[in-house]
């Protein structure tokens, strides 16, 4: 009997740990937790970038955003910031918004709550050392929230936000055209778009498809909605 109770408690603990990861299911999350899914005002689309900053690719993305007159939200990794702190400062100085993607790019489903807390704390400290403040937004690696993610984010004053459309710009066969088509296929009014300004966690040079997609996306979006960071979205 005691063994059955212990097994049941363990199973319940595992379920509680992974249950928040179900937020990757689009329709239920949009319906029940629209803000978590990045659904904001219908006349606006939020553009976000993950996995940087990367000296090889982020400056190219910044130049194109400047040419388009767009501001965006960059979810950065503390480990990447320590390699190029001046690049994070440049993102900030150019008026873009900064969010935390973690200190490392490890799935929170495979980490204990204590490890998640340590990871987010380390990332926040790194960002604070460079830009003098802590960000308010947080996006977990792979979009995989665990119970530990939710608790740590709340205690650290972070607001989790995922996305409602992505370009699959990390894929091996991604092109500017494929990224644009995939984004537009999934994008609804008030959506948040996930792109990547670095290939640090994906196929080498995949960021070039992202760069090629930006002007194509502008052709489709600018005539119907405003485009900007999450700060303008909700």
Structural overview:
The chain has 234 residues and is of the alpha/beta class. Helices cover 44% and strands 14% of the residues. The chain has nine helices and eight strands. The protein has helices at 2-18, 26-32, 58-68, 78-83, 85-93, 113-131, 147-155, 176-186, 207-221, and strands at 44-50, 73-77, 97-102, 137-138, 159-160, 165-166, 192-196, 226-228. Strands 1, 2, 3, 6, 7 and 8 form a six-stranded parallel beta sheet that branches. A two-stranded parallel ribbon has the order 4-5. It is globular, with a radius of gyration of 18 Å.
Beta-strand content bin: 5-15%
- Would you count the extended β strands for me? 8
Task: Identify low-pLDDT runs.
Answer: 4-17
Residue share in helix: 40-55%
CA-based gyration radius: 18 Å
Output the structural class: alpha/beta
Helix and strand sequence: HHEHEHHEHEHEEHEHE
* Largest beta-sheet characterization: 6 strands, parallel
The general outline is: globular
Question: Roughly what is the average pLDDT, rounded to an integer?
Answer: 90
Helical run tally: 9
Instruction: State the distance separating the first and last CA atoms.
Output: 51 Å
């Amino acid at each position: 009997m005691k063994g059955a109770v212990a097994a049941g408690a363990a199973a319940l603990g595992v379920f509680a740990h992974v249950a928040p990861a179900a937020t990757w299911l689009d329709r239920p999350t949009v319906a029940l937790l629209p803000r978590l899914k990045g659904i904001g005002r219908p006349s606006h689309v939020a553009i976000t970038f993950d996995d940087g900053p990367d000296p090889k690719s982020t400056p190219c993305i910044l130049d194109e955003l400047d040419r388009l007159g767009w501001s965006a939200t960059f979810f950065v990794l503390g480990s990447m910031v320590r390699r190029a702190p001046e690049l994070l400062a440049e993102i900030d100085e150019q008026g873009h918004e900064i969010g935390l993607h973690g200190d490392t790019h490890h799935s929170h489903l495979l980490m204990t709550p204590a490890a998640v807390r340590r990871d987010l704390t380390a990332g926040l400290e790194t960002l604070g050392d460079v830009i003098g403040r802590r960000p308010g937004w947080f996006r977990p690696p792979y979009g995989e929230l665990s119970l530990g993610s939710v608790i740590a984010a709340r205690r650290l004053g972070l607001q989790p936000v995922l996305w409602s459309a992505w370009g699959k710009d990390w894929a091996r066969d991604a092109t500017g055209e494929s990224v644009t088509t995939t984004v537009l296929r999934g994008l609804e009014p008030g959506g948040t778009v996930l792109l990547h300004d670095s290939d640090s966690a994906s196929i080498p040079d995949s960021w070039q498809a992202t760069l090629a997609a930006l002007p194509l996306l502008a052709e489709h979006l600018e005539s119907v909605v405003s485009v900007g960071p999450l700060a303008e979205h909700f």
